[in-house]
Specification:
It is a single chain. The chain is α/β, with parallel strands linked by helices. The protein is built from ten helices and 14 strands. The N terminus is likely disordered.
C-alpha cells in the first residue's frame, strides 16, 4: 500500500483514526525506550532492589500450566513483600500501546500522561491491597519480547501485560492464577480473502510478535504441516501493535495474536476485522520472579478478592465488552485451580 493510499484510508476516521495514529507513534517511541539494566549488586536503577530468589522450575511434565500456581494467601510477612513495602511501591511491567489494555488515550486531555486499560486497573488493584494505595505503583513500558528478561533481572516485581501462561515460560518465571481467558485469532483486512486459521493463509505473509505464543503456534504448526508450507511467518516485531502497523502499510497480509488484543486492534482500525474463531485456549497471568512464592500467593488472593468484589467485571465492562462479543468466553473471569 502506498503512503497516498494509506492516507486516503485514514481520512474520515475521526477519533478512531487519531487513536490509531497516536498509538502507532507511541509504539515507535516505546521501541526507543531502553530497559534499565540491572547492576551487579542486584539493584535495578529505577526499580529498587531486586526481590525474590531464582530457582529451577520443574516443567518437564507440565500440563495445564494455568493450574500450576500456589494457593492464595493474605500473609504480607514474606521476604519479597517485605522488601516491596520497605521500598514503598510496586514496580510493574506493562504495555503502553495496547488499546483498552494498557495505553495512553490521546483524546483524554485531562489525564493525558496516565496509563489506562484493563491490565492497568489490575496493577492498581494489586498495589491497593498490598500497599494500601492504588497509586503506589511505578509502571515500566516493556516490549513483548522483554517481559521475561525484565522479571529475571529484577527490574520489575511483576509483569501485567496480556502474558499467556505456558509450560515453557514456567521454566523462567512464576505465574499467578489466570485472570483472563482468550485464544489466538487471525486479523486481516475486511477485503481480504483470508477466512481464518485455515488453508486461506497459504502464500500469505503473517506477522506476530517475537517471543509470543502466537509465533510459537505458527512455528509449531508449520513444522507439523498443519499450517500451509507456503505461509510466510518470518515477519516478527518487538510489540504486537507493530503488526497492525505492518498490516496497514501493506507489508503483511494478516496478523496472528490473542483474540482479545485483535478485537481491540479492530476497534482502532475499521478496515480490518477478526477472521474465523479463536483456535487455541490461552490464559493470561501476572508473571513474577521464580522463588517469590509469597508475592505469587498474595497476588492470587488479590485476584480472588477482585473477582468477588465485582472489580474484575466492572473493569471488563468499561474496557473490553465493547470489542468482544456478548457470548465471548472472555466475558467472565476464568475459574482458578491451584497446584
Amino acid at each position: 500500500m502506498t503512503a497516498r493510499r494509506l492516507r486516503a484510508s485514514l481520512k474520515g476516521w475521526g477519533g478512531v483514526g487519531a487513536m490509531a495514529l497516536a498509538l502507532v507513534v507511541t509504539a515507535v517511541f516505546a521501541l526507543l525506550l531502553p530497559l534499565s539494566s540491572a547492576r551487579g549488586d542486584g539493584s535495578t536503577g529505577t526499580g529498587g532492589q531486586g526481590v525474590g530468589q531464582g530457582i529451577q522450575a520443574r516443567a518437564d511434565t507440565c500440563t495445564d500450566p494455568q493450574d500450576q500456581s500456589p494457593s492464595p494467601s493474605s500473609d504480607d510477612s514474606g521476604k519479597t513483600i517485605t522488601a516491596i513495602k520497605q521500598r514503598g511501591y510496586l514496580s510493574v511491567g506493562v504495555d503502553q500501546n495496547s488499546y483498552r489494555w494498557g495505553y495512553r488515550d490521546p483524546n483524554n486531555t485531562a489525564k493525558s500522561s496516565d496509563l489506562e486499560g484493563f491490565d492497568i486497573d489490575l496493577a492498581h488493584e494489586i498495589a491497593r491491597e498490598i500497599l494500601d494505595d492504588p497509586n503506589a505503583v511505578r509502571f515500566h513500558a516493556i516490549p513483548t519480547n522483554q517481559r521475561i528478561p525484565a522479571i529475571k533481572s529484577g527490574q520489575v516485581d511483576m509483569v501485567v501485560r496480556t502474558m499467556t501462561i505456558t509450560c515453557s515460560r514456567l521454566k523462567d518465571v512464576a505465574f499467578s492464577a489466570p485472570y483472563f481467558l482468550t485464544g489466538q485469532q487471525v486479523l486481516a483486512p475486511k477485503t481480504s480473502g483470508i477466512k481464518g486459521y485455515d488453508k486461506t493463509l497459504a502464500g500469505k505473509r503473517i506477522c506476530s510478535a517475537a517471543g509470543s505464543t502466537a509465533y510459537d503456534k505458527l512455528s509449531a504448526d508449520k513444522k507439523a504441516g498443519t499450517l500451509a508450507s507456503s505461509a510466510d511467518i518470518t515477519t516478527t516485531v518487538p510489540n504486537q501493535l507493530d503488526c497492525l502497523v505492518r498490516l496497514q502499510l501493506g507489508q503483511v497480509d494478516a496478523v496472528v495474536t490473542d483474540g482479545a488484543l485483535a478485537a481491540s486492534q479492530a476497534a482502532q482500525d475499521p478496515t480490518v476485522e477478526l477472521k474465523g474463531k479463536t483456535f487455541t485456549e490461552d490464559y493470561y497471568g501476572v508473571a513474577m520472579k521464580l522463588g517469590a512464592d509469597d508475592l505469587v500467593r498474595r497476588v492470587n488472593q488479590v485476584l480472588v478478592d477482585y473477582r468477588k468484589s465485582g472489580g474484575w467485571q466492572a473493569s471488563y465492562t468499561k474496557w473490553l465488552s465493547a470489542t468482544l462479543k456478548a457470548d465471548s468466553p472472555s466475558a467472565t473471569p476464568p475459574t482458578a485451580h491451584y497446584k
